[in-house]
Design brief:
InterPro entries: PAP2/HPO, PAP2/HPO_sf. The chain is mainly α. Helices cover 70% and strands 0% of the residues. The protein is globular, with a radius of gyration of 17 Å.
C-alpha cells in the first residue's frame, strides 16, 4: 500500500515540479520563497510591516504567531519527520534542482509553518487573508518546484500547520 501511495504521489509531484520552466528567473523566484530552507524570514518581514504600518492596539497576535510557528516547526520537523522517515523526491530526480535538506520530507515544515502563520495572521487581519494564504501557497509550491517535497508532504504539512494554529487560537479564546 505504501508503495502504491508513493507511486501515485510521484506521478502527481513530477509534473507539478516542472509546471513552470526551470529557468534562471523561476529558479530564483521559487528559491526566494524557500529562502534556502528558512521561510521564517518572509513572515518576520510581513510582521515587521504590519507592526510598523498598522495602528493596532492589540499586539497579542505577535505572541500567538510566534507560539504557533514554534510549535508547528517542532511538531513537523522534529517529531513527525522522524516518525514517517520519508525520503525526499530529489533523490529520485535525474538532476537536482536545488540544494534540499537531507532530513526526511514528510510533513513539509515549510508548508506547516506557512499555513500556521497565514492562519494566525488571517484571524487577526481578515482583509489581507488572501495575501497571507497566497504567500503560504507560494512557499509551499516552491518546495515542490525545487524538488524538495512531494505533494502529500505539502498537504500533510499544511494540515499540521492549520490544526496547530487553530488549536492555539482555540486555547487563546478559552483563556481570555
Amino acid at each position: 500500500m505504501v508503495s502504491f501511495i508513493q507511486k501515485v504521489d510521484s506521478g502527481i509531484t513530477q509534473p507539478l515540479c516542472f509546471l513552470f520552466p526551470h529557468t534562471g528567473f523561476f529558479d530564483l523566484f521559487f528559491s526566494f520563497f524557500s529562502l534556502k530552507g528558512d521561510s521564517f524570514l518572509i513572515w518576520v518581514l510581513i510582521l515587521f510591516f504590519l507592526v510598523l504600518f498598522e495602528k493596532r492596539r492589540d499586539k497579542r497576535f505577535i505572541l500567538y504567531f510566534f507560539a504557533s510557528f514554534a510549535i508547528t516547526a517542532l511538531v513537523s520537523n522534529f517529531f513527525l519527520k522522524n516518525i514517517f522517515q520519508r525520503v525526499r523526491p530529489y533523490t529520485l530526480l535525474e538532476k537536482s534542482i536545488a540544494v534540499c535538506p537531507t532530513d526526511f520530507s514528510f510533513p513539509s515544515g515549510h508548508a506547516a509553518t506557512a499555513v500556521a502563520a497565514a492562519t494566525i495572521l488571517s484571524a487577526f487581519d481578515k482583509k489581507r487573508k488572501w495575501f497571507y494564504y497566497t504567500v503560504a501557497l507560494l512557499i509551499s509550491f516552491s518546495r515542490i518546484y525545487l524538488g524538495c517535497h512531494y505533494v502529500v508532504d505539502i498537504v500533510g504539512g499544511a494540515l499540521v500547520g492549520w490544526l496547530i494554529s487553530k488549536g492555539v487560537l482555540f486555547l487563546v479564546k478559552r483563556i481570555t
